[in-house]
Amino acid sequence: MAGATTAGRTHAPSASSKYFKKLSAKPGQIALALGIAVFLILFLVVPVGTVIYVAFTEKGTGEFTLVNFLDFAQTDLFIRSFWNSFYVSAMSVVVASVFALPLAYITTRFEFRGAMLIQTLGFLPLIMPPFVGAVAMLLLFGRNGTVNLFLDDWFGFKIPFMEGLNGVIFVQAVHYFPFILINLSAALRNIDRAMEEAAQNLGSSGFRLFRRIVFPLAMPGYIAGASLVFVKVFDDLATPLLLNVKDMLAPQAYLRVTSIGIADPMGYVISVVLICMSILAMWISAQAMRGKDYATVQRGGGGLAKRQMRPWESAIAYGAVLLILLLVLAPHIGLLLLSFATIWSFSPLPDAYTLAHYSRVFGESFVYVKNTMVYASIAGVIDVVLGTAIAYLVLRTKLIGREWLDWAATAALAIPGVVLGIGYLRTFYGVQLPDGTPLAALWIMIVLALAIRRLPYALRACYAALQQISVSLEEAAENLGATKVRTVRRIMLPLMAGGILAGFVTSFATAAVELSATLMLVQSNADAPLAYGLYVFMQSPAGRGPGAALGVIAVLLVALCTFASHLIIEKSQKAKAAGH
Amino acid sequence: MNQPFPISALGINAVDVDIRNVDLSYGANHVLKGINLHIRPGEFFAFLGPSGCGKTTLLRLIAGFNQADGGEVLVGGRDVSQLPPWKRDVGMVFQSYALWPHMTVRRNVAFGLEERKVPKAEIDKRVAAALELVGLAHLADRRPSQLSGGQQQRVAVARTIAIEPKVLLLDEPLSNLDAKMRVQVRRELRDLQQRLGLTTIFVTHDQEEANTICDRIAVMNDGIVQQVGTPMELYEKPANLFVANFLGTANILPGRVIREGGERFFDIEGGVRLPIPAHVVVPEGAKLVFRPQHASLGKNGTRDVSLPGTVVHSEFLGSTLRYGVRIGTAEISIDTPFHSGETLYEPGSPVEIGLSLRSALWLAS
User: Fold this and answer.
1) Contact at 8 Å (CB) between A363 and A522?
2) Chain B nearest-CA residue for A196
3) Which residues from A are below 8 Å from B163, CB to CB?
4) Does ipTM surpass 0.85 in this model?
């Protein structure tokens, strides 16, 4: 008996201390988590919640109602806008697939000299927002654009590439097809050669083998890319507006809020529809990926068998690749021409060339570039700080509810930019500084919106960086006497530096050309970022030249950043490989 | 050889495989150098060798995934060298199993039959038979990812057997299993092969695997077949130093043959001399090769010759003690049975080494 009691006594404290340790965390960690939570609630949950709340309540009384949605369903314009958005998104996926499939197939299945070139050039469209290219595309493919002028001269007919919805589809497909290309190529490359050989061994070959084995295995990658394209197109605001297509959902939401007023509920209803559609597309993508981690490459395996092309195959392949690359580069080439053009109208090429647009941009419009640098840098810093902190809390602590931070930050993916912009406007317009300026009018709001929009991407980069660090490296530091804080500072941050930097650059580069969230938040030209300036310039024929010059600067800026982040990632990977 | 008997639903006939003068290079890398092998009908045959010896290349060549630069492969008397993989009817089980993750076990197994446009009812029957054979009929509707490694391996075997291949090719089929599973699965494979009577070629770098389940082994190195024989033949009569070394532990003593007064002696490097029995043929430049159990420490009447040596270290292996002993400049291993209470030789102590020259070999290369 006595022995048992003693044993019980000696066990009690150790058991409780274990319990204690499991549930609690260092005060510093709790404070950090709370700080992040407050930030996310204030700048993501509340604005989005406000949008949803307004959509579901009666104007004035604040009572719950579905009348707004009924109105939406009974208004021809909105229903037409919905189907137009749906049609444009779906067709953009189809056209983007037409560009991406041959490129992915050729580069992964054959020994092809141009493979590296395609994989690199395929990223080019990503460094320019689609609306920037839209005007250039009008000049090249429009009714009286270069291509149609030639067609008319030679064959006597024109192709309506850019008429109405066609234009939006064409511009979006050219712009976003790399999402499909990248995902599909990765999926194809991740198929173990033995998968294909096993099928051949059992009697399968040619197209049947492709249909039954290769294609199903690459399917999840394709769906991931396709759903991403669908969401991006569905949410895009500036491209339809610039092409003067107003009966689509995102433009309607923007026009309702900016022209009728922030009290009008329809903008909010459309926002809810946009959120639902993007969640739906993500859900479909998740369903497609679920339980299908088809990355089947084994050690020593390595991708599908590549074979040499026969001469005629090679001729076709080069032809197809060249044509697609020309299309993809068309907006860039058009933009470059436009930025040097004096007048470019009803002619295949500009009438004459000038540097005037650049001098104008570097003179009066340089404020846009400066603003963009400032905004995107701050947003990038916010993102990597939050990203690193969340990654640390989730992966390295036992804090209760830490996953919620991750989920909340990632949920920003499902929020279209225009919705976030409307949410900020509604939420922060009522809140005023002592001098009476509404919070929503401050430029810092643009920065916060950008930071929230880019946070999911930066978070993934930080996760990846942290996951690569073995826990034992930290334990070794603690074992040698370093405290948690000092371990983070001296061991983890230096090891994560490459990943964090890459995350920053990604955030920075994409924030620099973001427009849909910020379009509504810009209150004066002095506070406007580059993308806004571009948008304003591009709306008038006279502004196209300077707009194009500004666009070229934006493209160069983002291209440099993308290249830098590529170098950084490669270098850190090399360093890691050398370390092992 | 066991007489093959067919499994009712799977009509398998044993055929032979003839590999004639097969040559293969990748650029300047000569991977297979004039391979000649004859694998008998119903035989369980192994390609054994270190990595890079060409064994997997040869197996893939039989399956049609590599094209030979010269020579031919005959399966059941028919030259298949010019056929694409999907027309060869040689079933291959891949090292990674290569089960298709988007299909159930049943669909995986049915695949080859569907490709052959076999009628539906026949497919069902043969799939059921193949899965029954490997004991996985109850898991037919699972996905490969829901199975253990051993089960996946058996599905891969069933998938291959279902098409009633002429020959079964196994590419290191045990390498992805843990040690315990390996022993079990290799018995199952042997058992299955015996029941089907299917000519089977097994690629491995593990001599124990090859020894335990194969009828005959081709030991390969540097793209050349070094020796073909039963496991025991290879162990007892290795044709060269490589085979002696690769199968089991071999002591190899370099030295020179000396003639003095009509008698021959072998001068081991480092100044130890032993007489060569009169009837033994010693090739030019030969080395003396013997197994650790063919020598003993201390005075021992059953050994032919005795040599002076020094104990360097000892390892306790359970039933035996393995001593490292220096003779001249070489170090050899000697196994002695372990008896409890036995006095051990300390490192550094001089010992008398007894050697059975009858069991020893003189190998030149």
Assistant:
1) no
2) B98
3) 202-203
4) no
Residues of chain A neighbouring B145 (CB-CB closer than 8 A): 291, 293
Closest CA of chain B from A216, distance in Å:
7
CA distance B321 to B347: 13
pLDDT, tens digit (0-9, with 9 covering 90-100), for B16-36: 999 999 999 988 889 999 999
- Which residues in chain A have Cβ-Cβ distances shorter than 8 Å to B65? 197, 200
Fold of the domain built from segment(s) B17-237: Rossmann fold (3.40.50)
Coil/strand/helix, residue A344: coil
Nearest to A232 by CA among A272, A175, A157, A149: A175
Identity of the residue numbered B351:
V
Per the CB < 8 Å rule, is A202 touching B159? yes
Distance CA B97, CA B152 (A): 7
In B238-304, which ranges are continuous DSSP H helix?
Answer: 241-246
Query: Which residue of B lies nearest to A291 if distances are taken between CA atoms?
Result: B145
Neighbours of A149 (CB within 10 A): 17
The third-level CATH classification (topology) of the domain covering B251-363 is OB fold (Dihydrolipoamide Acetyltransferase, E2P) (2.40.50)
Nearest CA in chain A to B97: A194
Closest CA to B157 of B128, B192, B122: B192
Burial group, residue A11, by CB count within 10 angstroms (0-12, 13-18, 19+): exposed
Kindly tell me the number of DSSP H helices and DSSP E strands found in chain B: 8, 21
Q: How far is B112 from chain A (nearest CA, A)?
A: 5
A7-64 per-position pLDDT tens digit: 444 444 444 444 444 445 678 888 889 999 999 999 999 999 999 988 898 877 778 8
Among the partner-chain residues B92, B98, B101, the one whose CB lies closest to the CB of A294 is B101
Query: How far from chain centre, in Å, is Cα B149?
Result: 22
Burial of A288 (0-12, 13-18, 19+ CB in 10 A): middle
A204 neighbourhood in chain B, CB within 8 Å: 86, 111-112, 115
Chain B residues with beta carbon closer than 8 angstroms to that of A219: 102
Say whether A200 and B64 touch across the interface (CB within 8 A): yes
In chain B, domain spans: 17-237, 251-363
B17-237 and B251-363 in the same fold: no
Nearest-angstrom CA–CA distance, B14 and B42: 5
From the list B63, B86, B94, the residue facing A203 with the nearest CB is B86
